[in-house]
Amino acid sequence: MERESFEDEEVAALLNRYFVSIKVDREERPDIDHIYMTFCQALTGHGGWPLTIIIMPDKNPFYAGTYFPKRSKYGQPGLMDVLNRVKEAWETNKEDLKKTSRDMRHAIQDNVISTVEGELSKEVIPDTYSELKLFFDTNYGGFGRAPKFPTPHNLSFLLRYYKSTGEKTALNIVEKTLDSMYKGGIFDHLGFGFSRYSVDRKWLVPHFEKMLYDNALLAIAYVEAYQLTGNKRYATIADKIFTYVLRDMTDREGGFYSAEDADSEGEEGKFYVWDLKEILQLLGEEEGLLFAKYYDITEAGNFEGKNIPNLIKTDLEDIEENEKLDERLHKCKEILFEQRIKRIHPHKDDKILTAWNGLMIAAMAYGGRALNNEAYIHAARKSATFILNNLTREDGRLLARYRDGEAAYLATIDDYAFMVWGLIELYETTFDTIFLEHALKLNNEMLQYFWDEKDGGLFIYGHDSEKLLIRPKEIYDGATPSGNSVAALNMLKLLRITGQKELEEKANRLFQVFGRSIKENPNSYTHFMMALLFANVPTQEIVIAGEKEDEGTKEMLVEINKRFLPFTTVVLNHGIEALYELVPFARQQERVENQATAYVCENFACSAPITDIEQFIQLLTDSKKFDFI
Q1: Distance from C-alpha of 218 to C-alpha of 152, rounded to nearest angstrom
Q2: CA distance 433 to 452
Q3: C-alpha closest to that of 154 among 173, 139, 137, 172
Q4: Which residues pair with residue 76 across a beta bridge?
Q5: How far apart are CA 462 and CA 447, in angstroms?
Q6: Among 15, 329, 437, 568, which has the highest number of CB atoms less than 10 A from its own CB?
Q7: What's 522-541 look like in SS3?
Q8: Per-residue pLDDT, 111
Q9: Is 142 helix (H, G, I), strand (E, B) or coil?
Q10: Which tops the pLDDT comparison, 297 or 619?
């Protein structure tokens, strides 16, 4: 639409003569996007991007749609026709338009934005699992048919459901989906990283755009699956995601970039696709045919006469169990990658968003400790430091976007919630109290700016922000989880780490505020379900008393980090006053006989101190299954 209409002189002349045109970057201003997308969905029955809204000077909308070609065709109205009809209606029927816009605003406010309260009991958790199982594609993994989105929080919920219940099908769904996504063309087998979604059921043809948030959330899901299953395949895939992000999506000052476009030279996917002739020229006949066999490269092509490298028809174990074959294919991919670098690259969106950086900080910190990789931990620390130094006002208020030395826009709920998540993961990885301190500080500010004192829940934008048409709350876990969902789980974890009971009250209020809405369609709120799970299953709080560099301390941390322990929080008591100010109860949990000592507590009731590593491992290994009925 940008090329067809906004860069067209005839369209531009019409727009400039009769309208004030405002182009909104929905990633910089998700609050504006959410409000007008809600209007579009209410008016037309569907939504999507590009989003086209025509509003009154008072911000009330009266016309909405998504994509418009320049001229009407195939029964679809063209932008020129729409603009001329609106201009005519404005000149001849302005009062009716004003009334329509006011009526639409009230309808949205009364029926779409309103919060539907209700008790949210633990029984909704197995209902969520049952719905996901119903929509699971047994042939190709994922949920539904096409288009297919990764939706990693579905997978993270299922891993937690399996952990708490032992329901093997939940794990099977995750493994099938993780394998299928990796085998498909949605994963870039040469340069790594996942594209935004697949247009087909098999995960073959992606929308080639790569988003930071997808790669962060997918990395977390693959690392979790590795911890739970011990399957090194998932660790390798997570490593590839992190390799891509560190190589292509990281600013030298530490922030992570937002996205890479789908198209280059005006053609979607051109940077990523190959023909067989080019493969054979670069690799030679023997290696070229070998690569073509395993990565589905044919003369006819699998995408518009070209080929998207993929492993859909290949058994991954055939490669994994044949070291020589694996090495040959690896060398082929290196050669092709080096050749691909010479092509014209898709545009990189190099703005640094606080929310999405928070997700990648969480992923890098979590991946760093689970995969024992200091480079990931360093990247998480550097990004967090960058955000805290460059995306906060003098009064500490978090900002949303940084680019070319300029920080702008007051942070939304997602910025706060995702950043707190990243800082919690960074604390449990480094045990540097500064990150726990910042997590608590930002969480308190989040409640100060966004909490609805009248009805409960967190608004999308703060009370100090620009006053928009309406002030909504979001709970839907879509491409990214909602700020309310992430905040609920954050607060429960911070409660377990610090003992601040008021955080539990806020989390429980969130369960109540959105309870009825969630019960109607629970599989749309899977990150929220992770918070509900955390609130209902027995949790472990572990305090290890010991110096960071002591061998006994390291040994205990290794045992924790290699396991999937989603209902466990960890504090390291290394005897500093800054920790006791944040975690007062840790002062009493000291080393015994000058040895690294573990205090393993369940819902704040602690076992006797443990210095024996085998006894500690036994406590970590004991797995209690939970009945939600």
Answers
A1: 6
A2: 30
A3: 173
A4: 73
A5: 9
A6: 329
A7: HHHCHHHHHHHHHHHCCCEE
A8: 60
A9: coil
A10: 297
Low-confidence winner among 36-45, 345-354, 374-383, 404-413 (lowest mean pLDDT): 36-45
Query: Could you tell me the pLDDT band of residue 623, with boundaries at 50, 70 and 90?
Result: low
Task: Please tell me whether residue 475 adopts helix, strand or coil conformation.
Answer: coil
pTM above 0.85, yes or no: yes
Q: How many helices (H) and strands (E) does the chain have?
A: 24, 16
69: its two tokens:
């070609």
What would the pLDDT profile of 557-590 be if each residue is shown by its tens digit?
999 999 999 999 999 999 999 999 999 999 999 9
E-state strands within 381-475? 399-403, 406-410
**Cis amide linkage into residue 50, ω under 30° from 0:** yes
Instruction: Please state the separation of Cα 115 from the chain's center in Å.
Output: 24
Question: What does R_g of the chain's alpha carbons equal in angstroms?
Answer: 26
Non-local (6+) Cβ contacts of 525 within 8 A are 128, 475, 476, 477, 482, 485, 514, 518
Domains plus CATH for the chain?
2-112 (3.40.30.10), 124-263+349-536 (1.50.10.10), 272-342 (no CATH), 540-621 (3.40.30.10)
Question: What is the DSSP annotation of 84-118?
Answer: HHHHHHHHH-HHHHHHHHHHHHHHIIIIIS-----
Report which residue type is found at 447: L
